[in-house]
Specification:
Distance between the termini: 31 Å
Number of strands: 12
Protein name: 3-isopropylmalate dehydrogenase
Largest sheet: 10 strands, mixed
Family: Belongs to the isocitrate and isopropylmalate dehydrogenases family.
Catalytic activity: (2R,3S)-3-isopropylmalate + NAD(+) = 4-methyl-2-oxopentanoate + CO2 + NADH
Keywords: Amino-acid biosynthesis, Branched-chain amino acid biosynthesis, Leucine biosynthesis, Magnesium, Manganese, Metal-binding, NAD, Oxidoreductase
Order of helices and strands: EHEHHEHEHEEEHEHEHEHEEHHH
Bound molecules: 1,4-dihydronicotinamide adenine dinucleotide, 2-OXO-4-methylpentanoic acid, magnesium ion
Organism: Oleoguttula mirabilis
Number of helices: 12
Strand content: 15-25%
Amino acid sequence: MATNGTNPSPPKGGKLLILPGDHIGPEVVSEALKVLDIIEEATGAKFERDFDLCGGASLDKHKDSVTEAVLQKSVEVDAVFFGSAGGPEWGHSQPNPESGLLRIRHKMQIFANLRPCNFASKSLIHRSPIKPEIISGVDFTIIRENCGGAYYGSKVEEEDYGCDPWEYRRSEIERVVRVAGALAMQHDPPLPVWSVDKANVLANSRVWRRITHEIFEKEFPKVNIRDQLADSLAMLLITKPTAFNGLIVTDNTFGDILSDESGGLTGSLGLLPSASLAGPPAARGAEPGLGRNSVGGVVGLYEPVHGSAPDISGKGLANPVGQVLSLAMMLRYSFNMNHEAEVVEQAVAKVLDSKADGGLEVRTGDLGGKAGTAEMSEAIQREVRRLLKA
Ligand SMILES: NC(=O)C1=CN([C@@H]2O[C@H](COP(=O)(O)OP(=O)(O)OC[C@H]3O[C@@H](n4cnc5c(N)ncnc54)[C@H](O)[C@@H]3O)[C@@H](O)[C@H]2O)C=CC1
Ligand SMILES: CC(C)CC(=O)C(=O)O
Ligand SMILES: [Mg+2]
């Protein structure tokens, strides 16, 4: 109990379910957790860690891509830290390994998948396949609807026929576009928002567009909301990427595809993190309480944008940055540890800039360097330690 009339600050940390998954998933998750160890040591925060299986690893042991027990655990923790699921060895499995992740996303109702696209370090600009004068300064976040659309619903899969109903209901659209509105309003002036769809062809897109405008007009009148067709956006992100600085809110399929394009823009998919949230981060205009976890943050699942990269797994070559930056997003959104999140982001930037500082280049192969996963991770850990002591 507080003795001086003020409330003691709440204990930092909380409960984590860790699902490393397949191929490079476990390789990069174990490195990111070393960063968490350092943060625990320096801050006194305590993260209870429960490790389990999802994807191919779960298929091998339980003949299912995720078990009911793991699904149940996913809704009893403050956050899930996820690696990646899938690989060619489970190519003909029913269910397939990726379905484990889809089922967890649905069970947790983490409907807003935030996928930022920016340069973790300015020294990476020259790694982009896009000319520096075009790509420099790119900074947008895709907010991808994560629990509906063509990835869910009653699928039909027969020998000569396949069908994935691509449907959206008002409630599914409203809740994700509200996250976009709430995030836009965290900035002064508010960030611009592009709502991305295929309203020229798809009925569900026309409903998406109408409801999005209703919500913004009523609840976020100060936000500049514009429509953009998904196909032309795919082209414009290459020719004029900075024109979309701000927020892009879109459905599950378009968000999945466009966020891998972000990896192309920044030079490597291995760099990009993501946060899938069950409600808006604390923000003006956010509904209080929606999606909150037991420590006052938002319930979330954190994973890199990339997949399990079977082509490089088992060789110690994977870039750990996407996974480490996903840890930073977890600290920020689920555990209200903004300072520590920034420390992790600064440490990553510092390591990526090491050559620019006249030091040795510590970069994995996807970034044109010679370092392995462990070397790059150790460099990040050293920086995190140094910054936490400073
Ligand atoms: N969230 C998840 O668990 C996801 C799983 N997948 C699954 O992953 C498997 C492989 O899919 P792909 O289409 O090959 O996509 P992928 O994202 O695994 O790999 C695409 C390319 O990027 C490279 N890459 C990805 N992450 C990297 C990293 N951290 N460091 C260095 N290079 C990296 C890979 O080596 C590969 O050349 C499939 O089974 C797919 O379904 C794909 C996307 C997301
Ligand atoms: C279920 C995943 C494999 C889908 C995907 O590619 C992603 O979420 O990035
Ligand atoms: Mg994807």
